[in-house]
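>> received
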Amino acid sequence: MGKRLKSNLKNLLEERGWSIRKLAEETGLQFETLRRLYNDDTKQYQRETIGRICEVLNVELSEVLILVDTEESNT
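>> returned
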C-alpha cells in the first residue's frame, strides 16, 4: 500500500465559509490553480502557491496537504 499527498483545501475553505474565488482574491493566485487544488486534481504543488495559501488561511503546510494511503485517496 502506497502513500500520496492529498489536498485538504476543500475542507479548509468549507470550515471558513470561503469560496475558491474569495481565496483567489485574498491570495492573488489564479482561480484555476486553486480550483485544481480544491478538487485535489493536481500532480504538482508549487511551493509559492502552498506558502501563500498557508499565509492567508493562517494554517500549517500539514493542514493543506495531508498524507493518505493510496486506497483512501480516491474518496
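>> The longest helix spans residues 47-57.
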